[in-house]
Design brief:
Length: 305
């Protein structure tokens, strides 16, 4: 097979169906950009989970005098020194506990004033209305239920709260958005495949005389099919390159510059450039193989070689 002939046929085919080729490039670019974006979103969620789950605490809030009057869980009165000693001793014995920090009512009041000093409620609060608590860092955040089972309902304990539950709602939202992006991506891939097949059909029909002559002179099926397959592959590869450009530009302007979310949202640990760069070869390979395979199977039916 002469490479010059194949390359010339590719150029002719792409120019002859310029509008459809452009549509293929755009649809492949958008679908693969969404594909890469969904992969990066999964990496971002995993990174955030690893970052935040490592920082979540389980909080054991203790009964105070106000709770004893209003909360049925504290009907036996405010927590006593003996009950606090018992809680501390039990926490020290638990293998799932990494670190325990005690927060007194005065410390809780001071922290509340710092965070919500402008609130109208802040002026009416007094330190004795604040709850003492234990902030517990677990070795494995998934083991929250062990602590909850051991202390929830115990005398002197008003409630056991897990910060992980709050984060789970956020991550469920992010995962839902990610699956929505994947659904749109799948739809765009179907559109891209349909455009590729249709483009190959039009190209094969417009060159049916040439392919007929090639069959008569004994050209092999692969020799006849190669230019059509490579046309689709080249168009797809261009679309893949555009998709890679979208991802790089998006990472640069959204996280590093432009919106500069990495500076404005310091509490979020964003994915790095390594996560983006490792996805680019996969996108390029997909953009090359997907159109080539679609064209190959389309030619088996429509070119009849």
């Amino acid at each position: 097979m002469r490479a010059q002939f194949v390359l010339s046929e590719i150029g002719v085919g792409l120019r002859r169906n310029l509008t459809m080729t452009f549509a293929v490039i755009v649809s492949v670019a958008l679908s693969l950009a969404l594909f890469g974006g969904s992969l990066l979103m999964s990496d971002q969620v995993s990174t955030m989970k690893g970052y935040w789950y490592d920082k979540v605490n389980v909080s054991i809030f203790l009964c105070n005098k106000s709770d004893a009057e209003s909360d049925p869980k504290c009907a036996k009165g405010a927590v006593t020194s003996e009950q606090k000693d018992q809680i501390t001793g039990d926490l020290d014995k638990m293998s799932v506990v990494d670190k325990v920090t005690y927060e007194s009512a005065d410390q809780a009041y001071k922290l509340y004033k710092e965070q919500f000093g402008d609130s109208p409620l802040a002026s009416s609060l007094t330190p004795d209305q604040m709850q003492e608590s234990y902030r517990i860092k677990l070795k494995d955040p998934e083991k929250y239920q062990v602590v909850a089972t051991a202390f929830d309902g115990r005398d002197g304990v008003q409630s056991v709260q897990d910060q992980k539950g709050i984060l789970d709602n956020l991550f469920q939202l992010l995962n839902g958005m990610n699956w929505a992006a994947r659904a749109v991506m799948a739809l765009m891939l179907v559109v891209a495949l349909m455009l590729i097949v249709n483009t190959v059909r039009v190209s094969a029909f417009s060159r049916r005389r040439e392919t007929g002559i090639m069959r008569l002179v004994g050209a092999s099926g692969f020799y006849i099919q190669a230019p059509f397959i490579m046309e689709a592959a080249v168009a797809g590869l261009i679309g893949g390159g555009v998709a890679c450009g979208f991802l790089v530009i998006a990472r640069y302007f959204i996280i590093d510059h432009g919106l500069a979310l990495s500076e404005k949202l310091n509490l979020i640990n964003f994915i790095g450039w390594d996560a983006v760069l490792t996805k680019l070869p996969l996108i390029l390979a997909t953009s090359l193989l997907m159109p080539a395979l679609a064209a190959f199977f389309a030619l088996r039916k429509y070119l009849k070689v």
